[in-house]
Amino acid sequence: CVSVHGGNRLGGNSLLDILVFGRVAAERMIDYLRDNPYHPPLNEDSLDQARARLAHWDDTSDGESPMQLRAELQQVMEDHCGVYRDRETMQAGVDKVEALWRRFREDARLQDHSQVFNTARVEALETENLMLCALATVKSAILREESRGAHSRVDFPERDDAHWMKHSLYHLQSDSVDYKPVRTQPLTVPSFPPKKREY
């Protein structure tokens, strides 16, 4: 399976990936559930967080439309975190995404509070996820001082494997970015060495 586009989504065919990796994932899931038919005890703190996230949308006071905030987020990401990036533009993007996230948490409200097939509620939850993805993206990207793939820094035009051959991990609770090394030792076949992308 790893031979399918090198096991990643860069320049691959998503239908092939879904068929191959989806089937393997489903088979592993069935094997796992045979050995583990019951879920472990749930963490009460996690349940409380999930309930609070849903309860937020029951507030009937006036506020901003989640869809309007989503449109603003889309524009901010297009303007400040496109393929070609520089520190000044991205810093403005970080500031704007943080402000949108604050507005979303504090002021976003639904007009429709029905409990059955409420697409506005689903879209609000999706927008919350997009806000978190945007935070992780802009806060990780501004720190990555190199160009790699679709992250093209005009102020750092070269790829820098010596310093940046690592995954960026954003932690919302501490508002911090951490890193995890890229694992280059394969389990069964030799790996392809990193190489600059040229066209």
Chart the SSEs and their pairings.
Elements: H1 14-35, H2 44-55, H3 66-80, E1 84-85, H4 87-107, H5 119-141, E2 152-153, H6 161-164, E3 166-171, E4 176-181
Parallel strand pairs: 1-2
Antiparallel strand pairs: 3-4
What is the β-strand count?
4
SSE succession: HHHEHHEHEE
How large is the radius of gyration? 21 Å
Instruction: Give the uncertain stretches in residue-range form.
Output: none
| Tally of separate helices | 6
Report the average pLDDT across residues.
89
The largest sheet has its strands arranged as 1-2
Q: N-to-C terminal Cα separation, in Å?
A: 27 Å
| Largest sheet features | 2 strands, parallel
Structural class: mainly alpha
Q: Assign a percent range to the helix content.
A: 40-55%
Shape: globular
Portion in beta strands? 5-15%
Characteristic key phrases:
single chain, 199 residues, mainly alpha, two-stranded parallel sheet, two-stranded antiparallel sheet, 4 strands, 49% helix
Structure at a glance:
The chain has 199 residues and is mainly α. The protein has helices spanning 14-35, 44-55, 66-80, 87-107, 119-141, 161-164, and strands spanning 84-85, 152-153, 166-171, 176-181.
